[in-house]
Predict the structure.
Amino acid sequence: MNARRTIQGRAGAAAGICDSTNTRTEACACRACAHRKSPDEKHRANKRDVMALLDLIAGCVENHPRQAFDHATWGHVGDIAHLRDRLMEIAVNFAVEPDGDEQAARRRLEEALCADDEYVGEALIDAV
Ligand SMILES: [Zn+2]
């Protein structure tokens, strides 16, 4: 019995989705999907997906129809603040030091975000 369903990718390549996790089988690390793949291959697939999703998120923040408005409402603020919080949580995971102090990591990231626009990227890198 095939536990995976198949979808067609935009380029015509078949891609499998794990029925257990609803994750792309190339990236899925469940027992069935990890079979015959090395950790290096699974890591590479997951990293590729992370980079693609980051590109998607950046594009959506800039161009999604829900981002097209003349004047922001408090609802728009809540939406973007929620996204910011979720991304901050991920960034904190990279910034936390061996002592495990997440509050300190978050504080460094928030302080880095206080930098002027042209320096904020560099400041964030320094914070992690
Ligand atoms: Zn799986």
About this structure: Residues 18, 20-21, 23, 25, 28, 30, 32-33 surround zinc ion (CB under 6 Å).
